[in-house]
Amino acid sequence: MCRPDIPDDHLLRLTREQIIETIKNKQHYPSYKDKIPYFENMLCEVAGWCLIDELEKVDGIPGQPFDGNRFVKKSGLLHRDKEDWEALLSKL
């Protein structure tokens, strides 16, 4: 499982060129053009891992029903300490 560090303005970053194309002829564009952020690489934390047979088959999670089954693992139960990573590497 990975947790990306997505900035609040990520949609602006991803659509920068389309936004510029849409507003380039508008009155206040010159004052905003340098404020539209560029896309940059995002940091991502590897929160842990699990084996496929450790996944739980569910048809929803509280507040989010699924249209069919999903296979999940509670993030607090993921393997993440040094010994867990060493065990994973030994299996590769």
Shape call: elongated
Considering DSSP H and I runs of 4 or more, what fraction of the residues is helical? 25-40%
Number of helical runs?
A: 4
Distance between the termini: 18 Å
> How does the helix and strand content classify structurally?
alpha+beta
- Mean pLDDT level: 87
Taking Cα atoms only, what radius of gyration do you get, to the nearest Å?
21 Å
Largest sheet: 2 strands, antiparallel
Order of helices and strands: EHHHEEEH
| Count of domains | 2
Q: How many strand units?
A: 4
Low-confidence segments, given as residue ranges, are none
Q: What amount of the residues lies in strands?
A: 15-25%
Largest sheet: spatial strand order: 1-2
What does this structure look like?
With 92 residues, this protein is α+β, with helices and mostly antiparallel strands. It has 2 domains: 1-46, no CATH class; 50-92, no CATH class. The protein has 4 helices and 4 strands, in the order βαααβββα. It has helices at 10-14, 16-23, 29-32, 82-91, and strands at 2-4, 44-46, 56-61, 64-72. The strands form 2 sheets. A two-stranded antiparallel sheet has the order 1-2. A two-stranded antiparallel sheet has the order 3-4. A hairpin with a 2-residue loop joins strand 3 and strand 4. The longest helix has 10 residues, at 82-91. The model has no long low-confidence stretch (mean pLDDT 87).
List descriptors.
2 domains; alpha+beta; 92 residues; 4 helices; elongated; two-stranded antiparallel ribbon; 4 strands
Short synopsis of the structure:
The protein is an alpha+beta fold and 92 residues long. It is 29% helix and 23% strand.
